[in-house]
Amino acid sequence: MRSRILLACLLALAGAATALPGTAQAAQPFTMDTAAAYQVDPIGHRVTVTVGVTFTNTTPDVPGVFSIYRSIPISLQAGASRAAARDGTGALGVTVAASSGRTLVTVRLRSALRYRHSTSFTLSYRLTDGAAPGLRVRPSMVVLPVWAFGTDGSATVQVPSGFSTQATGATMTSTSSKLGTRLASGRISDPALWRALVTAAEPPNYASVTRSVPLVGGTVDLQVRAWSDDAAWGRRTLDLAAAALPMLQKVIGLPYAAGGPLVLTETAPAGLDPFAESTLGAQDVGVAFNVPPFTLLHQLAHVWIAGDVVSSRWIREGLASLAAARVAPSLKVPLPYRPAAQAAALKAEAFPLDAWGAADQGTPAGDAAGAADAWAYAASWAFIDNLATRLGADAPFVALRRAAAGTSPYEAGDPADPSAATVNPLDSHQLLDELEEASGSDLDPAFGSAVFGGRATALLSARANARAAAHGLIAAADGWGLPQPIVAALDDWRFPDATAAISAATIWLRERDTLTARATVSGLTIPGRLAAAWGSNGGDTGARAELAAEGAVLDAYETARAAIGHPNPVQALGMLGAPSASELLATGAGLFATGDLAGAVSAIERGSELNAGAQAAGVVRLGIGAAAMAVAALIVALAVRRVRIFAARRAARRQVVQPPSA
To answer: How many CB atoms lie within 10 A of CB 127?
Structure first.
């Protein structure tokens, strides 16, 4: 009974140890040395795998109990079939149990294997085309996931001649001969952590299907290029892409601006992760033959969410996944996983999201990059999805649209001419600013831990102080907004520069308010050029010069206005026939309101001069008027006298010539 219990325990350990291709443990109950050979037959649509196994029982006996193994469980790739085993005597019994992601084969030993005893046998099986996702064995293309087994082993892959062959994931060396290409792993000390993806392709031969898809901003000529022996993939992909593109555009909210056709080309997987993407060019998207439909939706979202609009990879991928998830239900496309749960399951690979894709930020490279990418895809999607839940479903896409329009987070609305705007691709800094400005939420803790990591603590503190000062300045500006130099400093996260500029601008605003109050008392309207100077310079030299210039005009106006009262009759006479000083002062006020400072000063000065000389001019005019009246009176008197003389002479002549009466 005790021996059976110990045997059961050993078998359980063996099963746990081989749940993956092989697991090395600190205190191993066995050793299993393996040599796996993969023979690729594209014409036959299959790969034949033989695994030479030497198994040793390393579990000591205990008093009264023998340590024995009667069977060996080994995990094979999903889709494995025709499993068989032989030792030096003949065939061994094999049982097969298929499950998601693997096939468990149990080899029954010819006799019980005791402590320090070894046995050798050969396990063989087949991997046939399409037997599992990611497995393709055809004359056009071979895509083969290669595993190693046991506690120590090796793997070789033989590919016929005529194929261009490469391995991704774990490193394999390549040699060529008349027989084709041979890939070899060398010794593998921990097969559980070893994975390779071998692809072998002949020069591609494609069959294309096309369709025109109307979108906002233009019609896209959609072309799908499938391998000539995979026409069904081309038709499926065309139908899904044609249906998805308008839906994705509606969610993302950007016009379709790319020129030329959008080409989807069937490719081998870009990596071990089925979520991995490969882009052949701006409008030529590589789509792995085995990707789930959701990944295609994700890739199509990149038509709008591309590197020229979004520079941070985690934002780009997170937004693409969020957009794909929004349209997936309508297209009856299942989600690949719940992003938060997937990220939690892979948390051992975690790193600050902002470092994803940045070689100088310490993100994994080489063989470890695939596992890190798998976590980053899930974590980016989960983080963006959480932002949408917290701030509003459209909030992340609003930030994207504003970035695409070249609008700063600290500017209201869109540019007057978005097509002429300089677009700074959306990064982690701008996304944080956009979302906080739009929502009023404090997102520093979330971004600080997940996106930037601990390195950004001091920077985020400086940002918080600068933003608080900027919001105070916005309130003080009373509708004038933030000046461009301060906006630029905040956008660039140059917080010391922003803080210094805000201090200068605050002083300037106090002087503006004083000027505005004086103008209101005097009945003047401050010209729009003062607000323009604020917008372009803030409290800097240009705005300060404008403030001084307008203050000088106001000084002149107030002085002239105090001097010019209601004119007396003499002054009114002096200004007769020309604009009055008050009228010139009013003209100056009007010119000031329009921003013509030079014209305003000229009118005010002419009004002052006219007012100052009006009394003297009136006296002169009075004198001239009196003289003119005296001359006129003299002329009238002379005229009367002449008329009287003329009348008298005429009367005398009449008396001389009159005849005497009869």
So the answer is: 25
**DSSP letters spanning 580-597:** -HHHHHHHHHHHHHHT-H
| Token pair of 472 as six digits | 């105070």
The pLDDT tens digits for 236-262 are 999 999 999 999 999 999 998 877 899
C-alpha torsion 63→65→67→71, nearest 10? 180
Q: Do 183 and 217 fall into the same domain?
A: no
- Predicted TM-score of the model (pTM): 0.74
* Contact indicator for 149, 34 with CB cutoff of 8 Å: yes
Q: Which two tokens stand for residue 98?
A: 């298929």
What whole-number distance in Å separates Cα of residue 461 and Cα of residue 239?
A: 50
User: Do residues 228 and 203 touch, judged by C-beta distance below 8 A?
Assistant: no
Number of domains in the chain: 4
pLDDT per residue over 415-440, tens digit each?
444 454 566 899 999 999 999 999 99
User: Please, how many CA atoms are within 13 Å of residue 585, restricted to the half-sphere of its CB?
Assistant: 24
CA distance 340 to 379: 7
Query: What residues contact residue 570 under an 8 Å CB cut-off, 6+ apart?
Result: 614, 615, 618, 619, 622
Whether 75 and 162 share a structural domain? yes
For residues 348 and 417, membership in a common domain is answered with yes
Query: Which amino acid is residue 123, in one-letter code?
Result: L
CB atoms near residue 298 (< 10 Å): 27
pLDDT tens column, 544-558: 999 999 889 888 888
Instruction: Specify whether 497 is located in the same domain as 564.
Output: yes
Domain of 141, CATH number, reads: 2.60.40
Do both 505 and 447 map to the same domain? no
| The two three-digit tokens of residue 352, written as one number | 């600050």
Q: pLDDT tens, 31-60?
A: 999 999 999 999 999 999 999 999 999 999
Q: Are 521 and 425 within one domain?
A: no
Q: What is the CATH number of the domain that holds 277?
A: 1.10.390.10
- Tokens 């009759």 locate to 569
3-state secondary structure of 253: coil
Residues 246 and 392 in one domain: no
Lowest mean per-residue pLDDT among 66-80, 81-95, 289-303, 617-631 = 617-631
Report the side by side order of strands in the sheet with 141-147. Answer: 136-137, 141-147, 195-201, 164-169
Report the length, in residues, of the chain.
662
C-alpha to C-alpha distance for 183 and 166, rounded to whole angstroms: 8
Amino acid at 183: L
Residue 282 included in any domain? yes
Domain limits for position 262: 209-304
Q: Exposed e or buried b for every residue in 54-63, given b needs 16+ CB within 10 A?
A: bbbbebeeee
